[in-house]
Write a structure and sequence with these properties.
This protein has 81 residues and is mainly β.
Length: 81
């Protein structure tokens, strides 16, 4: 059930983009009142300026899940899984 949630999940993360967007971002994803998952994202940017990301579901030991899309809009970072 949890894996199904992760694969169909659309994640929109608002982050403070101080100096750069690339790097490692992590935190707790709240599923419901009694369940949460530790997730991490590694965001990179290629030489053409296009962003890419992978997600890690640390609690489930699922790593390197590729993002379908990564978009930066002002001070918001959108990652779609």
């Amino acid at each position: 059930m949890k894996k199904q949630i992760l694969f169909t999940l659309f994640m929109a993360m608002q982050v403070c983009l101080v100096a750069q967007t690339t790097g490692k971002w992590f935190g707790k994803m709240i599923i419901n009142q009694s369940n949460s998952l530790t997730v991490a994202f590694e965001v990179s940017k290629d030489t053409d300026g296009k962003f890419a990301a992978v997600m890690h579901s640390v609690d489930q030991k699922a790593y390197n899940i590729p993002a379908d899309s990564v978009r930066v809009d002002g001070s918001e970072l959108y990652i779609s899984i």
